[in-house]
Amino acid sequence: MDLPPHLHSTRNLLMRSLPAHGQEQAPPMPAGLADDLLARFAPKSVVIARPVSLFGKARTFLATPGFGLAATAVVLLGIGVPMLSGPSRQETFRGANLAGAASEGPGICFVGRNAALQSAIEKSGSFEISAFRSASNRETALALSGSKVVVDFTTDTITAYDAEGNEVHSAKIPDQEVRVAGAVADAVSRL
Questions:
Q1: DSSP for 22-64?
Q2: Whole-prediction pTM value?
Q3: Nearest 10 degrees: CA dihedral of 153, 158, 161, 165?
Q4: Distance (Å) of CA 113 to CA 117, 130, 134, 150
Q5: What are the CA-CA distances from residue 102 to residues 1, 31, 95, 167 (Å)?
Q6: Taking the mean position of all CA atoms in its chain, how far away is CA 154?
Q7: Tens digits of per-residue pLDDT, 44-77?
Q8: Which terminus of the chain has fewer Cβ atoms in its 10 Å neighbourhood, N or C?
């Protein structure tokens, strides 16, 4: 057998060990040794690369650690920069700008007294605290400037008025306390 030059020393070692034992004393060759040696020292076959699809390229790109780090950085910057910059002049948290809130949004004016329903509206969390006002009668409530919702407990009505004083919406106060805040919110949404 022709062997590559780097295996000549191995061949010589094997050839010298065989005459020392003689043919009767030489151990038998294990089954499959020749096949294993030929497979081990056979020349490697060349693998031809197939073209990679666009999906394969995208999958490989998304699997890289660099993409994960870049995505994490983008998310952190997207969350962190707005938090560090603070709110803009137009943004205020509920109740933070008490003086300006009454002039910006519609007021909610209570005429008459019904402690349970008034408390349900105030505690609903749907309205600015600064929007609530009280009036002794309907004429006093209508004299308030800006758009407003008048909750009149004497006539059991909820009426919405625009900034010019025109009636936009009117509804009866619901009998159930849990529905009252929703009825007032509906009137506010029509302004």
A1: HHHHSPPPPTTHHHHHHHHHSPPPPPPPPPPPHHHHHHHHHTS
A2: 0.45
A3: -40
A4: 9, 19, 9, 13
A5: 102, 97, 10, 20
A6: 48
A7: 777 788 888 999 888 988 899 989 999 999 999 9
A8: N
